[in-house]
Amino acid sequence: MLLKTYSTTSSQLFSRDSNELQNEFNSFITRNHVLTFAHLQSHMEETWHGEIFPEQLLRYNNHDSIQLLRDLHQVTWNAEKYPWRFYRSDLPFAPPSVYKQYGHLSGVRVFSIRDKSGDTIPLSKDLCRAREVMHAKLAERVGRWGREVSYEVEFYQPDIRNGVVTCAALSLDGRHVALGFGSGVIEVVDIDHQRTICQLQHNSANLPDWIEFVHGSHRVATEDIDGNVAILGHGMAPVKLGNLPSGLYPAGTAISDNGLFIIRAPRNFNNPWCDNMTLISVSEHPFIQALTSPSDLSVPFPSSPSRPPSPSTPYRSETTLSRPHRRTLGFSPGTRYVGAFDGFSAFTWSTQSYELIACYRVTDSFFWIISPNVPPTHLHLVPDPIFTRAIPLAEDNTAYAHPSEDAARDSEDESWIKCPFYDLSPSSPQRWYSEFTSSATGRNPLIRSWSVMLGGREMLSLPGGYNPVTSLLAWYGHRVPGCRQELYCPQSSRDGTRFLVQGKSKAPMVIDISQIV
User: Fold this and answer.
1) Whole-angstrom Cα distance, residue 118 to residue 113?
2) How far apart are CA 214 and CA 313, in angstroms?
3) Are 471 and 315 in contact (CB under 8 A)?
4) Is residue 318 in a domain?
5) Domain limit, last residue, from 387, 404, 419
6) Of 369, 394, 419, which residue is a domain's last?
7) What DSSP character marks residue 367?
8) Which of 164, 228, 239, 177 is CA-nearest to residue 490?
9) Is 29 within the bounds of a domain?
């Protein structure tokens, strides 16, 4: 009798014809009851192995609700023991069927290129086709050779390279994304209105190395792998600014709050990076200007290693940052000054005269931050410079680079240059460093390994593959060829509630945490 009842129930549940039992089953799943069920699971052996739903139930393939259960089965591991992690770090990155049904419960929005029912980064038809060809070729090679395709193979296979996002940028308002592909194409997308704005191309023979939004959200500055810098925009001819020395690794860049200046720190190991710092102005009269080299002034600065580690060891074991990246580059509030540091030295320059102002010895870059213009509330040290120069006045012909005459901003700049760096080492033990550093750096989110922090607390954990790339062989993604333990500052909106991550993935995603901050 029980067998007959079970057989009848199963046939009704998995029938292709709609019936009352199916409606009740769907209601149980789609009204969040199944999540309640997952939360209430006891610490029995089945739960520890992630077997929350009966195996017999998950075998059926002719029912959409079963696919939802099968996908949910993959992400419910933390539901009972770590509900916060489940909602903040599992649901936002869950398979499409789960994200469509439950993603709104997490409070985290994720915009991505991947096929899912929700927020996307839409692409033009040509780029969608390039991505499809890339995935097909990757699957073919993996199927043939039985292992992951290497960076070198990906680069020298146009069918693969053309579908890879080599670099990306997020506008300061957080609404627009610029994607640079291996084909040399740069596409600008409005993620709020889910549409492509324009497609730009600087040089089809060279893939872009970095992108920054300038003058709002329809214009970008970019550099290709041969060091050619240009400004590209919808409906305008490319403005070629010149050529800069390039290396195996992309330059580190940061943009000023007003979107008119970019600071560029080279990452080649042939010369000290501080001897080749460049200011890129994207104002009405754009230009590239080299900043004064400390070596030219015989400044006794502690130097970083002049040779990179062997490419045969893509992950470095050193703990000292050897080249600046986005977290260790920054402008003063009114953009009159700029600062940068690595694991050995820190410097400040004037963006009006381009002269070096001061040099500092970095004791431990892990604890150093660029001044956020508000003194940290934690215990900290104010580093003393080992070299200083009088701050030169700007020449008349460079005054246009700073159109604002805001006296308050000038005052903030003068306060900033007196203390451009802070050393937080006297604060809490190192294991809490990430949290209190994120509270000291204000509205900029910070990433350490997979943890994303903002305002002194962890907001979420990134899925595997989206943490910064330290591999020296990588030619795409968020590359930080340096210390594996370093904190990284992703491109973000002005208020820090939207940020872009790519890691070693072949496409980025934009994460919106505005509902949970």
Assistant:
1) 11
2) 37
3) yes
4) yes
5) 419
6) 419
7) G
8) 177
9) yes
Give the Cα separation of 436 and 429 in Å (integer): 10
The residues, any chain, with a CB within 8 Å of residue 493's CB and separated by 6 or more, are 170, 171, 172, 173, 174, 499
Q: Extract the tokens encoding 24.
A: 């009740």
Asked if residue 375 belongs to a domain, the reply is yes
In this structure, what token pair is assigned to residue 229?
């810098």
Residue 242 neighbours by CB distance under 10 Å: 12
* Cα 114 from Cα 165, distance rounded (Å): 13
pTM of the model: 0.84
- Distance from C-alpha of 273 to C-alpha of 323, rounded to nearest angstrom: 7
Residue with tokens 């499409």: 96
Count of residues making up the chain: 517
Query: What string of pLDDT tens digits covers the 517 residues of the chain?
Result: 433 444 555 566 666 666 776 677 666 666 655 555 555 454 444 444 445 555 655 555 655 666 666 677 667 666 667 788 888 888 888 888 788 777 888 899 999 987 555 689 999 999 999 999 999 999 988 877 767 778 888 999 999 999 999 999 999 999 999 999 999 999 999 999 999 999 998 667 789 999 999 987 789 999 999 999 999 998 888 999 999 988 777 899 999 988 899 999 997 767 789 999 999 999 889 999 999 999 888 877 666 555 454 444 333 334 567 788 888 999 999 999 999 998 889 999 999 999 999 999 998 887 888 988 677 777 888 999 999 987 655 444 443 445 555 676 778 899 999 999 998 887 655 545 666 677 667 678 888 878 898 877 889 999 888 888 877 788 898 887 655 556 788 999 988 999 999 988 999 999 999 999 8
Cα distance between residue 112 and residue 95, in whole Å: 12
* Boundaries of domain holding 329: 288-419
What type of residue is 394? A
Question: Which 3 state secondary structure label does DSSP give 65?
Answer: helix
Q: Identify residue 277 by its one-letter amino acid code.
A: M
The angle, 0 to 180 degrees and rounded to 10, between the axes of the packed helices 20-30 and 64-73 is: 30
Within a domain: residue 355?
A: yes
Hey, what are 192's tokens? 């709020």
* Alpha-helical runs (H) found in 105-189: 125-145, 151-156, 158-161
Q: How many domains does the chain have?
A: 2
Question: In a 10 Å sphere around its CB, with 0-12 CB exposed, 13-18 middle and 19+ buried, how is residue 147 labelled?
Answer: exposed
Helix then strand then coil, % of the chain, to nearest 5: 30, 25, 50
Q: What is the 3-state secondary structure (H, E, C) of 79-108?
A: CCCCHHHHHHHHHHHCCHHHHHHHHHHHCC
